[in-house]
Amino acid sequence: MLTIFVVGIVAILSLAAGGGAGYVFRKSQSAKSADHAEAKAERILAEAKTKQIEILQETKTQEQETLLQAKEKAIKIIDEAKQDEQSRRRDLQDQQRRLEKRESMFDQKILEVEDKRLKLEEKSKEIEQMKERVRAIKEEQITKLQEIAGLTHEQAEEKLLLAVERDSQEALMSRLRKLEQESEEELEIKSRKILSLALTRYASSVCADTTTTSVELPNDEMKGRIIGKEGRNIKAIEVLTGTEIIVDDTPNMITISGFSPIRRQVAKRALDELIKDGRIHPARIEDAILTAKKTIAKDLRKAGEDALYQLGIPVSSIDPKLTSILGRMKYRTSYGQNALQHSIEVGTISGMIAEELGADVFICKKGGLFHDIGKAVDHDMQGAHPEIGYNIMKKFGFPEEICYQSIAHHEDRPRTIEGAIVKAADAISGARPGARKQSLEQFIQRMEDLERTAGSFDGVEKVYAIQAGREVRVFVQPEKIDDLTAYKLAKDVANKIEAELSYPGEVKVTIIRETRVIEYAK
User: What is the rounded distance in angstroms from the CA atom of residue 505 to the CA atom of residue 353?
Assistant: First the structure.
């Protein structure tokens, strides 16, 4: 036991001694490491301070270089600015010298102009004084002449004119007739040449198609079916179309009456469809009329487009509504002549004449085609068709030169050459043989109006309208109408016919003055 105890103590002491020795060794090692770390840290701090000093020195050097460069640039900019300013000052000084020089020149010219004006005023005063002296001398001479002749100025002038007229009447008439004959022959030759060229280049059917208001029936029994029970079918047709259906004794035929040609055409097409279908009652009538209206609308649009295409006018340049209005003239007639065909003829002939005369072909063609556009709606609007047509073209944005053609073709003296061309083409289209037709009553009435108008002048003995109203021969009383007065009477009669009557083409007025002296030899 003791031995074990001693061994334990020795072991404990050994452990204590070893621990103490280890502690002392470790402490000395730690002290060495701490000294080494402090030395390293001081060395690092010294290096950092050295680098910082070097960096600060480099930065200071760069800043100084930058400042120097900036100063050099600023000095350079200031020098350039000073040079520019000096250059601008020199330019301003030059401009100022030039302006001063111009002002001095203007002042000098103004003085010269003022001197001239003063001289002119003095001369004008001298001239006025001379005029006054001449006027006074003239009045004095006239007064002396009146005292010598015993006549006033007016009496002497009238007496002189009467003497000259009496002595020179025959010479004046001869000269007047000669000049008129020469001018008429020359103008007639030129006009015949131009018109013949235009007419030979344009050839159309002699008689234009006319619209009809008659409807053919397969048999007379169809009349009763159209009338219907207690007249309900015919009443429905009349109410829906705005026309009047006339059923008379004419075999296999009924007549449609109405002011509007479009309404008559709608009624005709609806009746044709009803007759073909065979079913005729109010409901079917309403469907047939609606279908006819749609068909007519398409037909009108196509007719207008065909007219534009025929004259070479782009369809896209015309409003579709105006194209449809133009197509309405397909069912409009004037003295039996189809209005649309007449307008196409006028546009074509106008363009040809314009080419010969050097006028505006486009205005003549377009104005000629639309010159009667007012007739398409004159049944539905108040006023004359020239004014209606002018307003329609204005509404659709046509220029004034084209709109004026609607009025020009009814004026005695159109303001423009294009208006005169369209007026001439309108007369050519309407007056050519077979273009228009009149009833017997209308023809007789026109002849009577011509004779009555020409016979309304003093000194007229008899009047005869011949050649279907294209010539009027006026016989005058020789004791009341002399040769010079007859010449004036012919112009007065022609002007009155133009102003009061409506006629196609032109009317020739011939004054006939006859003096018969009879004596018998015995």
Answer: 17
Phi-psi domain of 506 (left: phi exceeds 0; alpha: psi -120 through 50; beta: other): beta
Structure tokens of 59? 């930065």
Whether 461 maps to a domain, the answer reads: yes
**Domains held by the chain: number:** 2
Q: What is residue 474's predicted lDDT score, i.e. its pLDDT?
A: 92
Q: What is the CATH number of the domain that holds 268?
A: 1.10.3210
- Distance, CA of 354 to CA of 360 (rounded, Å): 6
Which domain-ending residue is among 402, 431, 460? 431
Residue 510 DSSP SS3: strand
Q: Where are the beta strands (DSSP E) in 210-354?
A: 214-216, 244-246, 253-257, 333-334, 337-338
341 and 451 housed in the same domain: no
| DSSP-derived 3-state class of residue 476 | strand
162 occurs within a structural domain: no
Query: 51-55, 169-173, 193-197, 206-210: which has the minimum mean pLDDT?
Result: 206-210
CA distance 269 to 290: 10
* 405 and 297 fall within a common domain: yes
| Ramachandran angles phi, psi of 254, nearest 5° | -130, 160
Residue 482 lies in a domain: yes
- pLDDT averaged over the chain? 80
Residue 106 phi, psi dihedral angles, 5° rounding = -60, -40
CB 422 within 8 A of CB 371: yes
Q: Quick one: pLDDT at residue 279?
A: 83
- Provide the pLDDT confidence category of residue 206 given band limits of 50, 70 and 90: very low
Range of the domain at 412: 214-431
Domain ends where: 382, 404, 431? 431
Does residue 258 form part of some domain? Answer: yes
Highest mean pLDDT pick, 12-21, 343-352, 462-471: 343-352
Residue whose structure tokens are 């074990």? 4
Question: How do residues 231-258 score in pLDDT, each as one tens digit?
Answer: 888 888 888 888 888 887 778 888 888 7
Strand blocks (E) in 179-311: 214-216, 244-246, 253-257
Residues 475 and 359 in one domain: no
The residues that bridge with 216 in the sheet, in sequence order, are 253
Q: How far apart are CA 238 and CA 371, in angstroms?
A: 33
